[in-house]
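User: Fold this; tokens only.

Assistant: Input:
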Amino acid sequence: MKKQHFIVFASVLIVLFTVTLLAQNKPKDPYGKADKAEVIVRQVKPNHFVFELGWDNDEKLAALTFPLIVKGKNFKMHYDSVSWKGRAEGFAVKSVLPIDSLQQVLVGLLADITGSTPPLGEGKGALAKLYFTVDSGTKRAIDVCEIMVDTTTIGASNNTLYGVIPDGTGGIHPAYSVVRMSAAGQPILCK
């Protein structure tokens, strides 16, 4: 009887987990066309990688959360640093919270609490570059196709991939994609 309860319980957990993952990948944008959030992964030198975060929006945004899980197949990735480039420069508050033990990183951007800094305007482009290193215990060269990067939910506030419009009454859940590039800057198709 205990085995049947366990199987039912495990089945329910699997269904809930699958529904949560599918909901994360479904864009929701009541203010126009669906926004797009993109991560471009590129090797900068052996076992050192840059993750360029981009956002394409057709409405103004006052805040963004960009939570990611970055891990490898049988190796760990560690967050090193951030470079705020392009569209993020207009935000008053820019932060990165790495959670190395879970191989997660939460990027947060806030235009301004006082309203003196304008929100992110409509457009497309890079927000930040995150730099990661493969765990020093890994003795072989790692390829970009061996790195998994995806959106995730990071507690305690259940941060998800999300944008907030300036009046704070609504939000955007963008479409999400990952592009892997060779060190020479050419797109790579991974199997």
